[in-house]
Structure formats: C-alpha cells, structure tokens
Predict the 3D structure of the following.
Amino acid sequence: LRSPDLGTEAWTYQRFTSGFDNIVDDARGLGKLEKLDELFDDIGRGMHRAVAQHHQAELDLFTEAEGGVPCFSGSSIHNARVDRAALWLPASEVPEGLELREGDCVLRAFIARAPGRSSTRAALIRSADLPATFDHTLIRLRPRAGVPVSVLELVVSFLNSSHFAQMLAAKGADLALSTSKLKQVEVPFPSSNVLEALERLSAAEAKYE
C-alpha cells in the first residue's frame, strides 16, 4: 500500500514504530546511499577495437618494452585489479580522452549470467597500471574531485558483489549495461566516522606489511 500523504515508500507497520526509527538512525550513522553520478562525473565506454587483421599483426609487435600502451578489456579484470591487456597500442593511437588515470574505476560492460547467479567485475586503476587505455567492453567511472580512495575501494567492492549483480537483475537490466541507467544506481557512501576508521585500519595494515 502507498499513501500520497505519507511519502512514496511502502506503508507498513514497521515504518511507524520506534524500533524502525532506531534502525534508520543506526543506518545513518554508518552512511548513506549516493547515486553513481554524484560520485563520478564521467561514466562512459571505451574505444571500439575495429582493427583490420593486417594492422592487428602490426599492433601485436608492440609491447611494454617497445613503448606500447596496454588496452584493457572486460576480460582483463581479476580480483578487483586489471591485468593481461587485450591489446597493445602505440601511444599515438590512444584516442584522446580515453586515457586511464589513477583512481579511475572500470566496470565490465556486461553482466555474466549462469543458472542461479549473475556476476559483475570492477577494478580500481592504480599508478602501476598506467599508462593505459580501455575498450568498449569496459565502462570507466572517473571520480569527482575530493572523493577519497577509501570510498572508491568500497564502491569497487560493492560493484563486484553479488548484491549489485542481483540488484541489476531485479531492475531488469540487460546483459549489456546501460551507462544512463548505471548513473542512477545507488551505492553505499560511508559516514565520516566510518571513513576515519577505515583510514586507521589502512594505516595499521601498511605499518605491518
């Protein structure tokens, strides 16, 4: 049931009990939900790799040693990191505006579905991954200024989670992800207290590595 006088949320008994208020207050202490386009100001696909076969042979000669630039694809993401470039390009052939930067997040542009489960893959670009570019099987999410790395790491963890894949499936998402719909997806954004705790944990982890 929904009442126009009481908001758009489902009208349930739990909403009007003190216990529910306490749950809401506890949740606010942990953080809130933010739409992806409030955290990232550029969400888009990479280059199309329509490369002629004879030119492909030339590109295969480029490696990191020869100054080649790796082009990552959806199959390059493993364990929230990128590796195994799909292609190496001369620096002169990297399209303008499609260079990856440290702090960019990349998301595989399609949902992998198997009986009973769906999965997505995302990674955070580190300085060791650069220089690099990406193809159309990846969606780049470029963070707005001031978004902490700890938040980006949490977002990537969420994008890799089964909860995110199930949420997309529940919303009727196609196998190929739409960037316009992706911008409206809500992800957890931690409170300042949680952020401080995460930073202390990261500092302690770095100290004992």
Notes: Confidence is low (pLDDT under 50) at residues 51-59.
